[in-house]
Design goal:
heterodimer, A: 88 residues, mainly alpha, 4 helices, 83% helix, 0% strand, B: 175 residues, 71% helix
């Protein structure tokens, strides 16, 4: 359990570019020698990519909510009319 | 209104940009024969790109409106070029997004964003919005940056395990 935790933390530092010099070389050497660590790196990279995808989806849905708000809120009636006038 | 100002909620910034810039984008698209929905599509993608530029540490440009307008013009011309090519037969009529492979299948993403939402929000705040540990602690109510970092690693472990298990499981289904 502790090894798994340490691997997660060390892999995170490595992927964040926080390992420099000796630490980085050592980690890369371990990747060659320890298949479990290499596999962990793969899943951690995949997880980060999924988190990026999730973050972007959240932002997109926030933009959609804002769009809905500006096209329905009473205080933005003149904005809405102005925009609609371009498409008449 | 500075977009990278941490004290202003993101929705407020998006709203301000929408009101300020969208009319110009809508006019631009309408003059080129586009519809309101197309103008919205282009502008929404523009806002995502712009926010990501800022989240990735690029400086807020002096003329924010012109900069955003530039992204929209670029996206519109890209879209127009693709449609023209499709009708002239230069490229096959296929979904242009088909080549873009997402890291997660919709099924896995649904699972993570429902049962694992708390962790996904925390990880997204760190890896996508690039908040530091101190700001993570403030947003999620942890006692300090150390506690936020530990929680982030716990979530990383948990989500990684789900990703691994479910990816392997879904692969079995595909075979």
């Amino acid at each position: 359990m502790k090894t798994s935790w340490n691997n997660t933390v060390e892999t995170d530092s490595y992927l964040n570019g926080q390992c420099s010099g000796e630490k980085k070389v050592l980690f890369e050497a371990r990747l060659l020698l320890e298949p479990d660590l290499k596999e962990n790196l793969h899943w951690q990279k995949t997880t980060r990519a999924i988190v990026q995808q999730y973050g972007r989806q959240q932002l997109k849905s926030e933009v959609e909510q804002v769009a809905h708000h500006v096209f329905t809120a009473r205080k933005y009636v003149s904005f809405k009319e102005k925009v609609f006038s371009f498409f008449r | 209104m500075a977009i990278n100002n941490p004290t202003i909620p993101r929705a407020e910034l998006l709203e301000a940009l929408y009101i300020k810039v969208f009319p110009a984008v809508a006019r631009y698209v309408s003059k080129r024969g586009g519809t309101l929905d197309e103008a919205k599509d282009v502008f929404h993608d523009t806002l995502v790109i712009y926010m990501e530029h800022i989240l990735n540490g690029r400086e807020v440009p002096n003329n924010e409106q012109a900069y955003i307008m530039g992204i929209s013009k670029h996206l519109w011309s890209k879209r127009f070029d693709e449609v023209t090519k499709m009708y002239s037969g230069d490229i096959p009529f296929t979904d242009t997004d088909a080549d873009y492979t997402e890291a997660a299948t919709p099924k896995l993403m649904h699972l993570l964003s429902t049962t694992g939402k708390k962790c996904m929000d925390l990880l997204s705040a760190f890896y996508y919005e690039k908040l530091d540990a101190e700001r993570l602690a403030q947003r999620f109510g942890f006692s300090g940056s150390r506690s936020a970092t530990v929680q982030k690693h716990k979530c990383l472990e948990k989500v990684k395990e789900t990703v691994k298990q479910k990816s392997l499981q879904y692969e079995d289904f595909m075979e």
